[in-house]
Amino acid sequence: MSSVTGKVVLITGGARGVGAEVARRLHDKGAKLVLTDLDEAPLKELAGSLGEDRVLTTVADVRDLAAMQAAVDKAVARFGGIDVVMANAGIATYGSVLNVDPAAFRTLIDVNIVGVFNTVRAALPSVIERRGYVLIVSSLAAYAAAPGLAPYNAAKAGVEHFANALRLEVAHLGVDVGSAHMSWIDTPLVREAKADLSTFQEMIGKLPGPLSKTTSVEACGKAFVKGIERRKRQINCPGWVGLLRWLRPVLSSRIGEPQVTKFVPDLLPRMDAEVAALGRSMSARTEALEK
Asked: What pTM, to 2 d.p., does this model score?
């Protein structure tokens, strides 16, 4: 029997990608699921494939604290409480600091940082009551920056430190807190960026060593579930990502930065030109959900 059998797990951004993969795997291990997302159709499809006896879905915007509180209240009413919360919902933007749409930047910060706060704030009383576990989905981007992704890098570094501070606040209450850090995962977010911008794929290919590789959603889901079961402080996918946590001071130094800055003068203007031609700084799917 898994340590998550019978546990209630709240996952934001649960309709697609890593959120959906983790949901499937936890459900297979006997967990009860509370899944939220803005995208109603795939959320319903996932719930239908899993069955409704151990699954509660709610269309909710993580930027809205009242909506997240309502989702938590429904979960408590249905299942009695929440044992694990996985703050997973997130988006990306395209373009350099000089050219990214300021409205897109604001949206990213609201979803990727404010949304994490709202998710945790709403669920935390129940998690404390059950001496549970909080997983904040950060990224390798918290360890190593990439040109053209400054808003995303900033947000993921921010939520990593949010997790670190939260851990200090709730450890004495029996709650464990972890942060998850992934390299490029074959999610809709990454696939959409590659489809929109040839320079995005080119940039990934120019990164040194394993930083240029993309990992499957299945491998990421497996790593997340293992980390949730063990209530880990850090979940790294692939495993080598954890090394970059210790190399972070070098990566942002005169030693590490030339590996990237050597291709920026050529690639970044072309990326910005592609973004300008698109007429948007986010994926078409993300923009559609905003309307």
From this structure: 0.96
